[in-house]
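[User]
Protein folding is very new to me. Any chance you could explain this protein sequence and its structure tokens? I have pasted everything here:
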Amino acid sequence: MERHRLLGMALSFVPGMNAQFVRHMEEAGVGLEEFFSSGQQELAARLNIPANPMLDRMVRDEALFKARKESEFMERHGIISLSLTDGDYPSRLVDIEKAPVTLFKLGAADLDAEKMLSIVGTRHATAYGTRYVASLVEDLAPYFPDMVIVSGLALGIDSAAHEAALKAGLPTVAVVAHGLNTIYPSQNRDLAKRIIAAGGAIVSEYPSGVTPYRSRFLERNRIVATMTDAVLVAESADKGGAMSTAAVASSFGRELLALPGRIGDEMSAGCNRLIRSQKALMAGSAADMISMLGWQPKNFPVAPRQRDLFPELEGAQKLIYDALRQAQQPMPVDALRDRTGLPIHDLMASLGEMEFDGIVERIPGNRFSLISY
């Protein structure tokens, strides 16, 4: 391993080291060689901070020793390190307040791809959520053949996202909460191998030997939330890891989308709340998502997947369809409720399903109209 990369990785082994301190070093003009070779008092003076345990010479020497040991493991297994001091550190993470000092990467995926989408959700995914993820990724692939799909390798929606990317021929990145000497959950070891073989990557901020732990999954979520352009919450209960990922994504200005579900469905409660509180856009078709995010496909214009001009509907959806077909302009929700006689929760759930199916579209002002082809 080249000297600069080794020293950059060694920073992450210094207890208490974080992104803010690395940036302070750069602002003070203290390079990696100087950090690891200078005396404690001299280094404190250069950084204009009090002498502290982080600057103790033995602490820094121990960090460098650990980095050398880790580099031996990495070279045996084809793992590379990406540190904040390196030019190839993922650009979307560079300015994040709590960015990892170092990322460990196994695999060839480009972490600076032009288009990157995180898809997250519950471990207890339903057929509705997994089917939507598979359909969405399949529909996005022709528009953006180099798009990278990011998730967390957990069971449920995460696995569905990775599987969908593999099926669509898109690279996918799994961000894990442990060292790369193992895979958790063990059920996804084969999936991890297929991700690597297909040009994807497994990424972690933890060196080998670090085991999965509850707090580490929450730390992992901040990477999933910020290393991409947008985050889609496909299914989530009102509380859970996906909701923490959504909160981080929103706080750092990432576009946030959520798949609506029926009122009362436990695994849609979180998504419905994100939409209701206007923290997330309502996820629909691939064409809708591309339009909402302002993405511009290079090869051909966006066109929704073709649907029947007069779909065979029944129940609440037929009432809504007939009301919109007879209307001369987009209808507000209140007008639709009066026209159809449907309870508001049934109306909104049906509208969400029809939007997903490409039958209706939402117009600014919470109005709806039929999609014309």
